[in-house]
Amino acid sequence: MENLNKATAPPELNLYNSIPEHLADIPVEKLDSILPGPSLIYIEGNVSPPIFISILLHGNEITGFLAIQQLIKELNLTSRPAPRGIILFIGNIAAAKKGMRRLENEPDYNRIWSGGLLPEHRLAGTVLEKLSEEPLYAAIDIHNNTGKNPHYACINRTDPSYIHLARRFSKTIVYFTEPHEVISMAFSHLCPSVTLECGFSGDVRGLNHVCNYLLQSLTMPAGELFSPPSNKLSEIYHTIAKISVPDNAQLGFGNCRRNVDMCFRNDLEELNFTTVPTGTKLGVTRAKNCTLQITDNDNRDVTGNYIITENNALITRKPLIPSMFTKNRTIIHQDCLGYIMEPYPMDKQTGQR
Ligand SMILES: [Zn+2]
What does the record give as cofactor (predicted)? Predict the structure, then answer.
């Protein structure tokens, strides 16, 4: 029997002044046996101010958690101070237990950081209140994609220090302002802040990549982290619209069963970070009034700018660069099908070239 009380109890913030016992070895799905819920863990370092690192805001994205475990072991952090102080936030432990992005009856933990009335909003508010009292060196939020994407870093401001912090992870950078309720946006008001998208959850290349990045961030002399890396060339994209599907639409990919409402091309994820030409068929709609819904950053319906429906086929009206296209139906309904980006103009890229 499932313990419903536990699943629905309002999340309380748990505070730790050192690394909880067994954190480095526990499988992610058993994390709740040592941490009762969302936790803020202060890890002593030789240098301050500390770096804020957040992981498991989405319970099914475990690369950040694995990277922290590796870091604790590699740097022997249970018995030695870190090269620089770390404040670690571990988010949705209950969802991680079930391998889900979020539980059905709760908000997305990466959409609770700009106020609201739910207990999860209060939790986020408590974290921000605590951390706005002290100086922070940088904030790093670690995620995975369910669809095929390159590793990339996201920023919510285009100040040089933010761009350089992102550039140290990847030459592909995504600048976005919506959704604005994400943790990286909240921290972007406190210090240089970045979101790392590390490919598929648990993939070893993403894990090694983020481990190296964290190690570099913790050991680099002050200031160097925020100056241009030797190769200054970046591709910065700006997210301009979100692509959703109707709430109850049955979705399929490739050779779809007859009863699906929308059937997308099987290679949809291959389109991420490519320029999709005008006239490209993304899929077909089979139900009346069932089509893609595209909204811009001001939440205006801009579907008609990008897509036309011709004989039930969903066809692009202009060249577009998608990101985060996914074939994971749960994620599509909980979040979205993907985003549309455009290259961010070089003359706006302060600190670039
Ligand atoms: Zn995520």
Answer: Zn(2+)
